[in-house]
Amino acid sequence: MSVSTFQQSSLSSQAQVVDGDVSVLARLGAAFAPHAQSIPDLSMVVDAGHLFDGVSLSEVAAQTAAGFAAPAANPRIDRVVIDQLSGAVSVVTGTEAATPAAPAIPGGKAPVAQVLLPPNATAITNAMITDERDLSSLGRIIAVEAGEGLTGGGTSGVVTIGLETPVAVALGGTGVDEVAAKEVFIGPLSGNDAPPSWRQLQLSDLPADVATTEEVNQAAPAGAVQHFAMSTAPNGWLAANGAAVSRTTYANLFTAIGTTFGAGDGSTTFNLPDLRGEFMRGWDSGRGVNPTRAFGSGEAATEVGLPVFFGVFGGQVAFASIGCQNADSNIQQDFSSSVITNLGEGAAWTALSSPGSGFFTTRPRNVALLACIKY
């Protein structure tokens, strides 16, 4: 059919203009138009139409809407709808009532007509049909079923999405599909009425620089201990402060260390190691350097006993001992019976007493950081 320019016309004087106007409106006006059969019966006709799925324009042939049944005692309103993606016609049966209401429009469908059926009807006429076509959503999905945590318009659990570009994803004619965890959508990729297809998420679906849970756990498994230059534990870590924590909440950590550092309340909690103010030492584990130590046990500081001389150095009373500092901070090496060598600057040492013994607690220079354990 050739095209024309739409002009507001008058039937009384502009028959030719009217013909042009009709040609302009025909494609949109006639699309999926509902009407009675040429010989009325309990079915009706939905004229040919078209839909665009964002990729392809499809022409849909005229169809017969069947499946009507006469109500018994009260009138009933049935609804004729078409699938948004395929254009296929179906009938939604209403409920008989003295004042009937039209049934709801199913998800994934577009309304075409309402049909008011009187009791014991034997045929559908045009007078019983109300045109309610709204074809604006054809070829696109306008709502998706949602889980917890999503917000938006619509009822609870449903998010309404306004699409700038039509999305050609069929949802099996219902508009609803539930997806298991760790699954990804694989099709269909163009408009049709096939149900969607899903598959298990694979490592190849992830960017190369994304670490898996397994890789993260291998880098820092539950039970790993690390010091941090911060006063609070980072995410995924607990301060190693001896606290009793839940065996359920921190199940991986409990599996790793058990009750080595304390059984908590004996049933629901267990204790973390308490590393506050402590140096850590490698467990002997059969080597024999420190054979009496049990794994995870603590050990008190040791005092070092050394022979000590008291004497005069540089005119001042001082002391000297192997491996310790004297009063002038010169490191001593070896004793002789009366003279200490290597005292610095050639100063003479005069012994005032024979060697005795002194006890010293040693501590290296240190910085206090927060010890944490991975859970």
Average pLDDT for all residues: 74
Helix-strand pattern, N to C? HEEEEEEEEEEEEEHEEEHEEEEEE
Percent in strands: 25-35%
Q: Helical amount among residues, as a percent range?
A: under 10%
Radius of gyration: 44 Å
3D structure, described in words:
By secondary structure, this protein is mainly beta. The strands form 8 sheets. Strands 7-6-8-9 form a 4-stranded antiparallel β-sheet, with no helix packed on it. Strands 18, 19, 20 and 21 form a 4-stranded antiparallel β-sheet that branches. A 3-stranded antiparallel β-sheet has the order 1-2-5, with no helix packed on it. 17% of the residues are buried. Among the domains are: 104 residues, no CATH class; 55 residues, no CATH class. The chain is built from 3 helices and 22 strands. The longest helix is centred in the N-terminal third of the chain and has 16 residues. About 21% of the residues have low confidence.
List the helices and strands and how they pair.
Layout: H1 15-30, E1 34-41, E2 43-46, E3 49-52, E4 57-60, E5 63-65, E6 76-83, E7 89-92, E8 109-117, E9 129-131, E10 143-145, E11 158-160, E12 183-187, E13 197-200, H2 213-219, E14 225-228, E15 237-239, E16 244-246, H3 251-257, E17 269-271, E18 303-313, E19 316-321, E20 349-351, E21 356-361, E22 370-374
Antiparallel strand pairs: 1-2, 2-5, 3-4, 6-7, 6-8, 8-9, 10-11, 12-13, 14-22, 15-22, 16-17, 18-19, 18-20, 18-21
